[in-house]
Structure formats: structure tokens, C-alpha cells
What does this fold into?
Amino acid sequence: MAIKVPTVQRIERSDVDGIINAIAKDGCCIVKNFTDAATVAQVEAETRPYLDADVPWKGDLFPPETRRCANLAGRSETVREKWLVDPLIRACNARFVDKTTSNFYGETKHTYTSEAVCTIAVTLEIGPGGKAQRLHRDDKNYHVDHPDQTKTGYQFGTDVEMAFMIPGVKTTVENGATLAIPGSHLWGSDREPKVEEAIYAEMDVGDCWIMLGGLYHAGGANRTRDQRRNVHGLFFARGFLRQEENIYLANSAEDVLSWSPAAQKALGYTLSSPNIGFVGFVPPLQYLRGVPAEALGDFDPSQEKQT
Ligand SMILES: O=C(O)CCC(=O)C(=O)O
Ligand SMILES: [Fe+2]
It folds into this structure.
């Protein structure tokens, strides 16, 4: 039986309800006219020095042809002050990632809402010859147990993360457009994604790709000789997925490096498997010691390809 390949919906940015409905149904959509070419060009200028200075990744997480601009929101004023705070992004996060609960505080019932926060902002540029990533769910980092929702339809609240990816160039099947399986956000954790089920989310400059943390996707292969495919990614997660006490701002590098390895680990100065807590793609203790990213490989051996 032929595999039924789903399609991705393309929706104007003014149709916020349409966008939210598409994301609930398919786990993703492409927003038309999210931004304009002049803003994209500004972000290109702000990120280019960092992309050009980046070096190949040594592990399996990214092909060696990929270049990154980590700390994108810190480095690009345009990304931070225009896209990160865009009302459409806020509206999507409010529907899919913010969390509201009520409970009693003594005799009074209190209701609290924790708003989504940006968990990573990064530009990913796939260079000529870059191989495709493996299909994955970004929320693997947050250890989400996905129930099978293929029969019930999407239950709001089952995702803890979502992503907004804005292309710096027109993305095509040839230059590494993101691969994705619309509808796979509904799959239970034990279902394996197949490349034959995936579509390419080809985008024009000005578009934005939105996907839930539970959607299977991957950076595509760049089969061109001379095109660099950059995409600026803003990823948001539940605002409470962090420590209650922010001691990272309270202790000096020198103090932290003098602590025992067991204490450093217990206080969160190592990574949570697989990918949580790095600085510029360097684990925190190595970062504090000044170890450069090029000296390191994958964060977690469990990510290596099984042979
Ligand atoms: O580059 C892309 O299109 C997607 C990258 C991605 O999925 C990732 O690095 O997690
Ligand atoms: Fe991803």
C-alpha cells in the first residue's frame, strides 16, 4: 500500500485562528508574510560574522557543513526586538506552551500561569554537501511521553515546546529545506518515523515555519554546490522548565570551578541528557574553563547512530 504523504498548510499571518487550527491538526504550518525581505536582510548582516566564524561540529548532531549562530537573541537586535516578541509568536505560545494550573493556598484557590520562555535561539546554516539530519522530535530534550492521539485528535497541553523558524534564503528541496511529517505530533512515543512519510517545508523569504516539539522533522540535505541554507530558529518551552533558584547569576566562574564534581553536577552545571544546558554548544563547566566548541563532539553518546 502506498504511503499517504500529508501536506503542509500555508496561511497568511493575519489569520491567527487558522494558524492555530493548522498547528493543532498537523503539528506545523507555514506562515506567509510573517516578516519582510528588509528585516531578513538585517538579520543576515547581524548573524553573518558569527556564521562565518563558526567551525564544523564533530559529532552526529549536525553535519560538518553546518554553521551556527548561537545566542541569536543576544547577538541580533532585530531577532530579539522584532521576531522574538512578535504578537503572533506570543499568541501561538499562549495556546500551545503556556501552562495554567489552579490549587489551594490555604483556603483560597489560586490560579497561576507560567508563560513560555525562549529555550534556544539559533541560526542554522546548512552548507553545500551537508547530509540530512535524522528525523527527530525536538522535545526529546524535555522527555515528553507522547500518548497516541491519532484517534482522539490533538489534546491541547500535550506539548511543552514549539519552534518558529524563519528562513534567511528561499529554501528548496535541493538546498536543505526542513523535512517534516505533518500529523506526527499525534503519534505515540513508540512509533518510528520513516523518511518516505516526510515532506519538504519549502519556504520563501518572509515565511515562518511553525512546529510543535512533538513533530518529527529534520534539517534537509544540501545537494547544491554553492548555496548556503540559513534558517533563524526561535524555540520556546514551558517557562517553569528551569531551576527555582537561579544560582547561575549568583556564583563566579572561579567559585564554581572550585566545587566538587558531584556538587557541580547536583547544581546543574552539567548537561541534562541529551541536550539541555549548554552555552554556545559547550557544556557549562567546559565553558567556564574556556574550552572551545571545536574541541568537543556530541553531548551525549546515546545520540550516536546505532549500527
Ligand atoms: O535546520 C533545520 O531545518 C532543522 C534543524 C533541526 O531540526 C535541529 O537542529 O533540531
Ligand atoms: Fe530539530
